[in-house]
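During the no-cost extension, the postdoctoral fellow (Dr. R.K.) reprocessed legacy sequence entries with the updated structure-token encoder. One reprocessed record is reproduced below for audit purposes.
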Amino acid sequence: MQRVHYKVSRAILAAAISLLAACGGRGESSAIGSGAGSGTASPPGGIQLQVVSFGDSLSDVGTYAPIASVVGGGRFTTNPGQVWSQDVAQYYGDTLTAAYTIDVAHNLKAQGGLGYAEGGATVATPANLYNFLTDVIGDIEMPVNQQVSNYLAAHGSFNANQLVLVWAGSNDVLRAGPLPAAAATVQTAASALAQVVGQTVQNGAAHVVVVNVPNVGLSPKGIGQPDGGANLTQLSQMFNDSLNAALQTDGLQGKVIQIDSYAWVNQTVANFKANGFSVSNTSVACDPSKTPDQTALLCSPATYVAPDADQTYMFADDLHPTTHLHALFAQYVEQQIAKSGLGH
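Re-encoded structure tokens follow.
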């Protein structure tokens, strides 16, 4: 029954995309533009910063919205909710929009925004090596090293009035395979990410937030594995250890604000009820039988398992946070930035 419903959902999506193309391909990303912010007060000292974001689906503010919005989706969360990077930008008085968006021909078009993060992106591996929703978005996602290069090509440098957010590596972990063979892949990706961070600092970024990989093994996808997520947890730890070592070797640890999302996810899952959730990492907010491709990108209130699932569940699909979890993480990041001294 679920498989039949899934095929019907995909057919509906295909029809909607065809209709969009017939109308000239003018998808409205604003359809998913509003959502709950982080809920915190204005920053200490009233500091205003322009936010620039690099990474993957955890930070993607709407790269694929022109297509995904035709079924009520647009971001990898419980749409129309925001992702953490938008919440953080809002906190610092900015509005983060996509640097590139997709068109109906599966091409990326520059839009002038500073949200470079794209769903499916790895740290440095070309998109065409992986099959990531290719029937919906194609093989187009930019790896993070290319995201930073494209920013520099368009803007020349960073500046002291910007807050640069970097969160990547989860896709490298997910695609690395089992240990021990996966170790080299993950360690190489972590070292490459440190080099990308160094590139932002060398080009004028004064406030760089580097988020490590969360415990991917604790995601619904992870705990659903035969090993209960043990391999993904080990790879997440390995990536983070390698990233810390590379940042230290490159003399960057004192120049960036490091955010430990691994420990934060562990603690939040362990205390999910205290954080306002009724369901932890054991189920998802977006009904797999109603959500096309079973991905949060195409999730909407019409596909929620319950009307308040965006607030009561931790995960939208088997990997991506709900609106509520994104908002809580944004608050945590804002607190860590304040502890670094920024805004005082």
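The chain is about 35% helix and 5% strand. Residues 101 and 263 are 33 Å apart (CA to CA). The remaining legacy entries will be reprocessed before the final report is submitted.
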